[in-house]
Design brief:
Layout (H helix, E strand, L loop, with lengths): L1 H39 L7 H30 L8 H23 L4 H10 L1 H18 L3 H7 L1 H8 L1 H17 L4 H39 L1
Helix pairs in contact: 1-2, 2-3, 2-8, 2-9, 3-5, 4-5, 5-8, 6-7, 8-9
């Protein structure tokens, strides 16, 4: 009876997760929809370019943090099917990162690549932003199951750990960009550190177990 009940619960959670996917997708569209509505209806501030740039940048960072939160939530709640949302959230992070990059290159610099190069040498927060964006490109490209099979599980996981570096560079980019009002970037940085600490703590027992197993094997051989 308990086994049957557990099986039914798992099936119910799977169905609910499948039903939630379109809801989560629509929810992820809300930030961009609100920004588009504000732009069309003239509801942006006196500096609309800054509104677009800041909104796309902040939501890139938020979606990165949401993506990294999936594994801790799965471990804490036991809701394993929540991992079905991870790829979607990661791709939305990349989507907003592309919009943020295009806003800078097109609307801000008007494709003046000589000015863009000068920015790279003069403003360090631009360099941090470039690093964050460039690291997301291979992660978005290799996010499919086909690429997992092509690279192999271990190599794919190693590559996708770059999301932590990308998120960290994003926090640094945000921190250097705002200069004075640094409360939000510090908050995002704190959350990112907690997520990284959770991952390191979770990996440590695995390494300890492997080391103990290796020692036991050697003792058995002796």
């Amino acid at each position: 009876m308990p086994t049957r009940l557990l099986s039914c619960m798992r099936e119910w959670i799977f169905v609910k997760t499948t039903e939630l996917k379109p809801v989560v997708f629509l929810a992820c569209l809300i930030p961009m929809s609100l920004l588009t509505w504000a732009a069309v209806n003239g509801k942006l501030s006196a500096n609309p370019l800054e509104d677009i740039r800041d909104t796309t940048g902040i939501w890139t960072l938020r979606f990165l943090i949401l993506t990294l939160s999936i594994t801790p939530l799965r471990k804490i709640t036991g809701w394993h099917n929540i991992t079905r949302f991870r790829r979607m959230l990661g791709l939305f992070a990349f989507f907003h990162a592309v919009l943020h990059f295009v806003t800078y290159v097109w609307l801000d610099q008007f494709f003046a690549f000589d000015e863009i190069v000068k920015d790279l040498t003069k403003r360090r927060f631009i360099i941090a932003g470039y690093i964050s964006f460039v690291l997301l490109i291979p992660l978005a490209v290799t996010s499919t199951r086909k690429w997992i099979r092509r690279l192999g599980g271990k190599r794919w996981q190693m590559l996708h750990r770059l999301i932590y570096v990308s998120a960290a560079a994003g926090v640094v980019h945000y921190f250097w960009r705002v200069k004075l009002d640094v409360q939000r970037p510090i908050l995002y940085g704190t959350v990112l550190l907690l997520l990284l600490a959770f991952r390191l703590v979770r990996l440590r027992p695995v390494h300890v177990h492997r080391k103990l197993t290796s020692n036991q094997v050697q003792q058995t051989r002796l």
